[in-house]
Design goal:
four-stranded mixed β-sheet, five-stranded parallel β-sheet, 39% helix, globular, 365 residues, Enolase-like, domain 1, alpha/beta, 13 helices
Length: 365
């Protein structure tokens, strides 16, 4: 057994990357993608790495001080991720366990697990009791709210990027008929054998959701994702009961208890936690146990590198969401072939920064 690691310090750096295909959803348009790069330094010289994707640039101004405070709080502690996770959360008890507090803890947690796996000389999936292997993925790099013809052409591009047989299409155009036309155009372009998921990005009222989701309920979609605002679990329960197509939610679960509550309310058929909200690797593992006990399929949201590692040990593993938005600052982006993400057989999660690219995109806050 390798000797235990000791946390020395935590460094967090803000970078902003341009998006090749800008996000154009009903609730927001995003042309640049903020990342917080985290380096957990240990006294033994091993560095654990992770990143956060907080959507808007100014949110990094709130998260960076929180991360640095956690580094100071935990300096000298043994790198035992579960204990660091619990200590960090309890330190923020009086401001609550959700929102920015959970996001900061999740960044620390993912870096701690990376350091622990590196110290053990194993990929994270193997450290967690699994094996290195491929993970099935769908391409989520585009298909935003464009005209049907443009979306169809882009669907072919996305399918060919990594031999994908699954794509996610965004909905929520002004006219429901235009959403329907976009689905039909994509189907014609990529064929009936391609899996198609759709995502409304929380853009609908309950009345709109019932109308629009019934319009597409016969189209053989793999799932309908987040038609309602994320915390309307009662509304989701009504919608889930009314539809044949599986309802997917979960990227806004703040911790495993949110997942448990959603399942108690029968608010969905599928879950897809996001690592910065569910609580990093520790939060995912606890949530995965709940989903496993309920028999509910569990997919990942963003963070494909750590997502691939933990899906290898998730009982009800479903789909990995593939997005390459962090690739420009990685030395060795993960490889996708025939719709499968291939985990490198290297210690840790597999993140190493391209420091020249980082320097080029570093910002001042």
């Amino acid at each position: 057994m390798p000797p235990p690691l000791t946390l020395k310090s935590l460094r967090a750096r803000p970078v902003v990357l341009p998006l090749k295909r800008p996000v154009a959803a009903r609730i927001a348009t995003i042309t640049q993608w903020p990342l917080i790069l985290i380096d957990l330094q240990t006294e033994e010289g091993i560095v654990g790495r992770s990143y956060l994707e907080p959507y808007i640039v100014k949110s990094m101004g709130y998260l960076l001080p929180a991360l640095h405070d956690l580094g100071e709080l935990l300096a000298g502690k043994t790198v035992a991720p579960v204990e660091l996770y619990d200590t960090a959360r309890k330190s923020l008890h009086f401001v609550g366990y959700q929102g920015l507090a959970m996001i900061a803890v999740a960044g620390l947690d993912m870096a701690a697990w990376d350091a622990l796996a590196k110290g053990a000389g194993q990929p994270l999936c193997r450290l967690l009791g699994g094996s290195v292997g491929p993970v099935k993925a769908y391409n989520s790099n585009g298909l935003w709210l464009k005209a049907p013809e443009a979306v169809a052409a882009e669907a072919v591009e996305l399918r060919e990027e990594g031999g994908f047989d699954a794509l996610k299409l965004r909905l929520g155009r002004e006219r429901p008929e235009d959403d329907l036309a976009a689905i039909e155009a994509v189907r014609r372009a990529v064929g009936p054998e391609t899996h198609v998921m759709v995502d409304f990005n929380q853009g609908l009222s309950q009345a709109e959701a019932l109308h629009r989701c019934h319009m597409i309920d016969h189209l053989g979609l793999d799932w309908i994702e987040e038609p309602l605002v994320y915390d309307d679990l009662d509304g989701y329960a009504k919608l889930t009961a009314a539809l044949k197509t599986p309802v997917q939610i979960g990227e806004n679960f703040y911790g495993p208890r949110d997942l448990h509550l959603a399942l108690q309310k029968k608010a969905c058929d599928l879950v897809m936690p996001d690592f910065m909200r569910i609580g990093g690797v520790t939060g995912w593992l606890r949530a995965a146990a709940i989903a496993g006990a309920a028999g509910v399929p569990m997919s990942s949201h963003l963070y494909p590198e750590v997502g691939a590692q933990v899906l290898r040990v998730t009982e009800t593993a479903h789909w990995l969401e593939w997005q390459d938005w962090a690739d420009p600052i990685l030395q060795r982006p993960f490889e996708v072939k025939e719709g499968l993400l291939h985990i490198p057989d290297t210690p840790g999660v597999g993140l190493d920064w391209d420091e020249e690219a980082v320097a080029a995109h570093l910002i001042e806050l």
